[in-house]
Amino acid sequence: MVMPATGWLLVLTLGTGFAAFDRAAGQNVFPSPTLITGDGPRPPNITSPAATGSWAPIPSPTVGGQVYKPASMSGIGKQAQIIGADNFCLFMPPDPTTQNLVDAEAIAVAYCMNPYNDTRPMPDGFIKTAHFRQTPDYVQISGTFDWTKMNLNPYDCGGEYDNHGAEGVGNPIGAHVDGGDNWMEFMGSCDSPGISNFCFRSCHGDNSYPYCRNTFDLMGCLWVMPGDYAQPGFTNCQADSELPVGVYNSSYTFAQGQSFTPPPVAAPTSSSCSTIASPSASGVTYTWAQLGYSTGVTATGSATGTPKGTGSTSTSKGAAGRVTVGGGFFGQGSCGVLFTVLFGLFGALWVLA
Questions:
Q1: What does the radius of gyration of the chain's CA atoms come to, in whole angstroms?
Q2: What residue ranges in 119-158 does DSSP mark as E strands?
Q3: Is the pTM of this model over 0.70?
Q4: How would DSSP label each residue in 237-284?
Q5: Which residues are bridge partners to 298 per DSSP?
Q6: Digit-coded pLDDT (tens) for 308-349
Q7: Please, which residues have CB within 8 angstroms of residue 347's CB and are 6 or more apart in sequence?
């Protein structure tokens, strides 16, 4: 039996529609980078810049009785704070369309929840979870972020920013954390498959350096700064100080590069925790936001480290495979779904003709 012309037309029309839908869904898949070096993968290409939000700076912000310069979405300020889960900063690339986390190690600028003094506002929705710990020797903020809001490649393993740097002038140069004698920050997407972690610790006092030691730049957040990361919500807690970084007991201290890497120490038990509301949107959207990708990320492949430089120079690690972002009905394997649907319709129309 020959299928009527109207049947063929229906099949072709459905096929064209499904193919267009499949191409649109393909935007949810972030491909693996074609070249990964010790400096990490390049930033994603921006195909459609986002419109900037409605945020406007406070004209003359006053902090501690002192009047500062206002914040700016193009600011170059490097004064950071770690005050709570809803009031902290992170050092990140000033231009993430051309710079990855390692590229920006000397020139990164501060993005803050409550920006002032020429720092930049934190993008809306960038911080997914945040957990603040106050200890006798340091304060620490840790959590997860949405890489799409800052165009940070989901294969970028990042590295370490600290107040020393390979040249002794800090990475980024001239950066400062209020109340801190030493500090260190890690960001990246390789500690936990499919999860982008950040951690930032500011250590104070005459004996602060061992708690912010800058010789573990290949180890990442989960090893260097044990704490809460992907746990839901925003919390402020008190806690005891953990042992200095790399110290396990009185007879064993680990140094980066040794043949055996021990597991991270357990984070000290926290207390007096309070859960706070997640930060409300303040109209901050940068043009480099990747609106074509979902926020859910599932990583496939493995990460490997490639040393870059010496001392506290940040190092990024590459990954094989690809990262699938989002999913939905037409995720991976949508071509198979398309052909199944088309041939099913073809068969039904042939029988009914």
A1: 24
A2: 120-121, 127-134, 138-145
A3: yes
A4: EEE---PPTTEEETTEE--TT-S--PPPPPPPPEEEEEEEPPPPP-S-
A5: 324
A6: 333 333 444 433 333 333 333 223 333 443 444 444 454 444
A7: none
